[in-house]
């Protein structure tokens, strides 16, 4: 570690692989001071402006809030509270478009600004030594400070570490083109920044503190060097200008030569990184009791007349900033008469879909380019051609990946190969897509692939959990079944034992059981008798055979039953034939008449069957007859329809059109069903009456 | 107000594939001019034929594949293939040689495998090899440099030879190749190989007073050395403009140097010098224009070095022990075959991963 700090002091930094040099365009805004803006008319505050969870609401619609009042509270370490950036009344709490590439809406608090800007009571502190570690952490957490470099990780978690910290790195690199927010903050407020750094120093006690600034910011470097000259362990490092030197992993490699192992955090190697604006906010929170209410935002781009840095209150809608910086609606039209408004820099920023999107804790730039300045931002058709494997992308990748192979696999949706090629190490910096001669939108492909991989992992997790649940349930059910069976066995054994004991209760129980068994047997015999009686009743009203008790009689009864069945079948056939004849007659008449005749025959059949005391078999007959009638009617309809189509004159068809015929057939089917239902009901009634008659003589006998 | 939605990054360095191809085409011009100066109009006519055929074929296939004609036809890749093939052919080969070769190269080797970016083999070299194997006679009747010819080969004569097989005066191609003392002249590589096979030493072959050895000229190979030199210059321009990777030509030439150096150390009499190998045949063309084709080469730096090394070794082996006088085309095709395997094993280490852990 000594050699690291020696090299750093000498200015002999390491370097990372790749990197590009896009045109910086920082001169648009770097020479003007940060402007204080007037108050906007309305503030839109999303409940979540950081990585983690949203806090719980403390206010309701209609409440009057003061500047700095907490609007949400945090009951979870990953929840960071938000505060009212100025005084006003809460007009709504509803979903609104937030600053996110997806353009989706999240819950936001709308505040109508009353213009008075009245502060809430704040508790400042002059002497740092009076505050304990816990006090400091509480102040930082209550002030709602999240990482302001872009990721928005809750700061109170990051600075609350007990591990051995070798290096605290303050990231003032700002490698992305156009953005000068951190640069001007360092030029104007270096004293406060250094105070903030010393607070973190007290919390983390690192061995060294390195403030990294790119070489293209000489004024900022000088200013910070002056303010930190009194502190031995704080070093200002001027790193060479290269995009993306400001990425966490790349900056750590530049300053310390160490690589963070894939999948682990810098804290595991004893390094913590904080953005320079976060330090400023920490100073505000601890010394002045001011929560995080505003930040420096670079509003830039050649489509604006007054590009500059501004102090923007959190929750200010973009349209307010654009008008303040001279966005002329008619002058900023692109090719399709649409303007591109990008939140962030040109390399990693995302385009916004609406100008009501609010500024949040992590917004550092609003870029409004002109079509001449950035033609690729306005490309309406894709100019993508095939990859020629030139390898320029892998030459510039800061993570030493192979973008051309990743692109191949991403297009083929080959997710295992993508994982093997370490897609998860991609930091989305955009350097590869910046240089690609075939204009392939590489970063877009990787984002889609990463999202699909993540979704697949979630589904896999769910499936695993479901599998465990299912296995557990199966096991439980089996156990219960076994337990039940055991219980039954035990109870049966107990009963048997009790019965065999020769106590009076046991004897009584035994006889009761025997009586029950005898009853069951008798009932079974009766049922058998009924069956045979029903079967033989069709022909004549034969006398009911006696209750059969021995085998021979049983056999006789069985033979009688079989005969009866055969006879019944023969009669069915006769009836069916009669129906067929009738339908033949129908075929020769007109369809309308045919339907009516069908109805008549069906009703005749049903009535006839009812008269014959039909039971279940007759139901069957009715059904068969009805089915045959249906089929014939259908055939009729089809043939007449065909004849209609062909156009031949037909004795059968008259005015029939297929829908009408279909209706008729449907009606017929319905009617057949109704008829059979009626027959069934009547048959049931008959059965019941017969049962009664059967049981009556029996009762008399017993 | 509706805004335009796009994905980051929003700016671009505005480099394009077509401008890359254009740059490579410009870099071949010195070599083509040198070839014209020393060998006449033959190759230019072949280049013209090849380009026309290539454009027609590409247009047909792209229309059949329903691709955007404007973008893809004029991106310069078909033009470059045709150019390289035209440069490689013998100057007096019949016209149908270049037409067939180009059709094969564009339709089968490039488009049938998926078009630009998807072909595993270099189309120009694959076309050349197909022609060499199918029409060995026509592909080995090389024209000697103009200074050694007894027949005046101006433009009309060359056109007539290529399209009819005879000059306007009635000389056949064989007669053109024959020197005044009725000995057919071949390329320097060919001559050296044949004579070494017969038992003559290199010095004997080069310094012999026979007119056949005039093909060697004052330095290494008359005419050919200047052509190779011009291609070398074009290649340096490409490297300076970062259009090609410098590792491939360097490793190719270095491996050729090592092979010839070893051979010379072992047996000086039967091995020509490194400079001879470097400046005759298609060495420089292969080093800077063929092997560096990004689509068919390796992607990682280590891979490129391995491919270049392998190519140099193969060129030397085929030239010395193989059946053909010049082995650049075969070596390139063999290296194209190994490129995917080399790619797989030479992936660079990703940031944050240990070597070998992936």
Describe this structure in words.
The complex is a heterodimer of chains A (702) and B (358). By secondary structure, chain A is of the alpha/beta class. Among the domains of chain A are: 1-28 and 135-289, Rossmann fold; 396-500, no CATH class; 553-701, no CATH class. Chain A is 48% helix and 11% strand. In chain A, the strands form four sheets. Chain A has a six-stranded mixed beta sheet, with helices on both faces. In chain A, helix 15 (504-536) runs parallel beside helix 16, helix 16 (551-588) runs antiparallel to helix 17 (591-611) and helix 17 (591-611) runs parallel beside helix 19. The model of chain A is unreliable at 330-335, 542-549, 589-595, 645-658 and 697-702 (pLDDT under 50). Chain B has 358 residues and is mostly helical. Helices cover 61% and strands 0% of the residues of chain B. The N and C termini of chain B lie far apart (48 Å). The radius of gyration of chain B is 22 Å and the shape is globular. Chains A and B meet through strand 15, helix 13 and helix 14 of A and helix 1 of B.
Write the layout of secondary structure elements.
The complex is a heterodimer of chains A (about 700) and B (about 350).
Chain A (H helix, E strand, L loop, with lengths): L1 H9 L24 E2 L5 E5 L9 E2 L6 E2 L6 E2 L14 E10 L7 E9 L19 H10 L12 H4 L8 E6 L8 H8 L1 H15 L3 E7 L3 H11 L5 E6 L8 H9 L14 E5 H13 L5 E7 L7 E6 L4 H7 L17 E2 L6 E2 L13 E3 L24 H5 L6 H9 L3 H6 L10 H5 L6 H58 L4 H33 L14 H38 L2 H21 L4 H31 L11 H44 L1
Parallel strand pairs in A: 1-13, 8-9, 8-11, 9-10, 12-16
Antiparallel strand pairs in A: 2-7, 3-5, 4-6, 6-7, 12-13, 14-15, 14-16
Chain B lengths: L16 H23 L2 H23 L4 H5 L3 H12 L6 H17 L11 H12 L1 H4 L15 H10 L8 H5 L10 H11 L3 H6 L16 H17 L6 H20 L7 H5 L4 H8 L10 H21 L6 H18 L13
Helix pairs in contact in B: 1-4, 1-12, 2-4, 2-5, 4-5, 4-6, 5-6, 6-17, 12-15, 13-15, 13-16, 16-17
């Amino acid at each position: 570690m000594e050699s690291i700090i020696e090299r750093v002091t000498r200015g002999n930094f390491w370097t990372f692989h790749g990197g590009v040099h896009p045109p910086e365009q920082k001169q648009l805004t770097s020479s003007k001071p940060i402007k204080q803006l007037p108050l906007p008319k309305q503030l839109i505050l999303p409940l979540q402006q950081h990585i983690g969870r949203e806090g719980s609401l403390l206010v309701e619609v209609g409440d009057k809030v003061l500047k700095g009042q907490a609007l949400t509270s945090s009951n979870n370490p990953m929840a960071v509270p938000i505060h009212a950036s100025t005084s006003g009344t809460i007009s709504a709490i509803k979903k609104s478009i937030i600053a996110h590439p997806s353009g989706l809406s999240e819950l936001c608090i709308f505040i109508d600004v009353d213009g008075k800007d009245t502060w809430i009571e704040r508790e400042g502190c002059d002497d740092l030594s009076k505050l304990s570690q816990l006090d400091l952490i509480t102040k930082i957490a209550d002030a709602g400070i999240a990482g302001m470099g872009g990721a928005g990780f809750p700061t109170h978690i990051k600075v609350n570490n007990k591990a051995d910290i070798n290096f605290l790195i303050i990231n003032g690199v700002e490698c992305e083109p156009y953005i000068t927010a951190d640069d001007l903050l360092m030029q104007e407020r270096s004293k406060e920044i250094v105070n903030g750094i010393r607070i973190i120093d007290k919390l983390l006690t690192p061995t060294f503190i390195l403030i990294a600034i790119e070489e293209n910011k000489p004024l900022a470097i000088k200013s910070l060097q002056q303010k930190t000259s009194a502190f031995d362990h704080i070093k200002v490092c001027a790193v060479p200008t290269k995009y993306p030197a400001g990425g966490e992993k790349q900056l750590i490699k530049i300053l310390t030569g160490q690589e963070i192992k894939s999948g682990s955090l810098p804290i595991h190697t004893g390094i913590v990184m904080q953005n320079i604006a976060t330090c400023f906010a920490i100073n505000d929170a601890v010394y002045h009791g001011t929560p995080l209410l505003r930040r420096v935002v670079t509003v830039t781009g050649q489509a604006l007349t007054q590009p500059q840095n501004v102090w923007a209150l959190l929750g200010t809608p973009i349209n307010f900033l654009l008008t303040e910086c001279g966005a002329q609606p008619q002058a900023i039209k692109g090719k399709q008469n649409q303007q591109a408004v990008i939140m962030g820099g040109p390399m990693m920023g995302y385009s916004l879909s609406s100008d009501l999107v609010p500024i949040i804790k992590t917004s550092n730039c609003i870029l409004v380019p002109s079509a001449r300045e950035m033609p690729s931002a306005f490309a309406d058709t894709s100019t993508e051609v095939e990859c020629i494997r030139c390898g320029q992308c892998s030459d510039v990748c800061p993570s030493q990946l192979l973008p051309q192979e990743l692109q191949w696999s991403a297009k083929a949706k080959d997710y295992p190969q993508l994982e093997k090629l370490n897609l998860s190490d991609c930091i989305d910096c955009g350097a590869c897509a910046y240089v690609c001669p075939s204009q392939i939108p590489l970063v877009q492909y990787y984002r889609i692939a990463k999202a699909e991989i993540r979704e697949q992992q979630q589904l896999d997790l769910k499936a695993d959990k479901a599998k465990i649940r299912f296995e557990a349930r199966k096991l439980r059910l089996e156990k219960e079944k076994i337990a039940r069976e055991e219980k039954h066995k035990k109870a049966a054994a107990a009963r048997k034992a009790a019965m065999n004991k020769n106590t009076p209760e046991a004897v009584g129980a035994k006889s009761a059981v025997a009586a029950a068994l005898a009853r069951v047997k008798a009932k079974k015999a009766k049922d058998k008798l009924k069956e045979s009686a029903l079967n033989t009743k069709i022909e004549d009203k034969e006398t009911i055979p006696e209750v059969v008790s021995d085998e021979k009689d049983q056999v006789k009864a069985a033979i009688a039953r079989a005969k009866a069945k055969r006879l019944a079948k023969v009669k069915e056939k006769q009836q069916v034939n009669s129906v067929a004849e009738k339908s033949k007659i129908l075929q020769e008449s007109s369809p309308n008449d045919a339907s009516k005749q069908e109805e008549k025959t069906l009703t005749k059949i049903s009535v006839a069957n009812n008269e014959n005391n039909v039971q279940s078999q007759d139901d069957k007959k009715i059904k068969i007859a009805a089915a045959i009638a249906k089929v014939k009617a259908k055939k009729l309809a089809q043939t007449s329809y065909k004849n209609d189509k062909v156009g031949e004159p037909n004795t059968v068809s008259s005015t029939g059109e297929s829908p009408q015929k279909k209706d008729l057939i449907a009606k017929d089917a319905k009617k057949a069903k109704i008829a059979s239902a009626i027959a069934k009901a009547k048959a049931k009634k008959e059965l019941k009456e017969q049962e009664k008659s059967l049981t009556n003589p029996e009762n008399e006998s017993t | 107000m509706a805004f335009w939605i796009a994905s980051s990054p929003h700016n671009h360095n505005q480099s394009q594939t077509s401008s890359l191809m254009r740059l490579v085409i410009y870099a071949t011009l010195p070599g083509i001019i040198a070839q014209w100066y020393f060998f006449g109009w033959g190759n230019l006519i072949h280049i013209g034929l090849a380009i026309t055929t290539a454009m027609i074929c590409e247009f047909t296939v792209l229309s059949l594949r329903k691709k955007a004609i404007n973008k893809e036809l004029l991106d310069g890749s078909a033009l470059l293939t045709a150019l390289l093939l035209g440069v490689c052919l013998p100057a007096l080969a019949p016209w149908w040689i270049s037409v067939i070769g180009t059709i094969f190269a564009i339709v089968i080797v490039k488009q049938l495998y998926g078009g630009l970016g998807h072909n595993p083999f270099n189309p120009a070299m694959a076309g050349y090899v197909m022609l060499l194997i199918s029409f060995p006679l026509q592909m080995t009747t090389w024209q000697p440099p103009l200074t050694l010819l007894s027949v005046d080969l101006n433009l009309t004569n060359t056109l007539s030879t290529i399209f009819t097989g005879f000059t306007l005066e009635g000389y056949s191609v064989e007669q053109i190749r024959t020197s005044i003392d009725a000995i057919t002249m071949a390329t320097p590589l060919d001559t050296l190989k044949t004579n070494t096979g017969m038992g003559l030493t290199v010095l004997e072959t080069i310094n012999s007073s026979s007119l056949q050895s005039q093909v060697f000229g004052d330095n290494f190979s008359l005419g050919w050395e200047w052509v190779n030199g011009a291609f070398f210059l074009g290649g340096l321009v490409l490297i300076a403009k970062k259009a090609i990777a410098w590792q491939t030509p360097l490793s190719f030439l270095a491996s050729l140097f090592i092979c010839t150096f070893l051979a010379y150390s072992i047996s000086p009499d039967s091995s020509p010098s490194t400079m001879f190998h470097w400046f005759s045949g298609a060495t420089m063309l292969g080093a800077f224009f063929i092997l560096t084709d990004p689509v068919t080469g390796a992607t990682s730096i280590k891979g490129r070095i391995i491919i270049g090394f392998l190519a140099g070794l193969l060129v030397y082996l085929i030239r010395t022990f193989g059946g053909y006088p010049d082995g650049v085309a075969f070596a390139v095709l063999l290296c194209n075959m190994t490129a995917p395997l080399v790619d797989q094993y030479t992936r660079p280490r990703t940031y944050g991963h240990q070597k070998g852990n992936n």
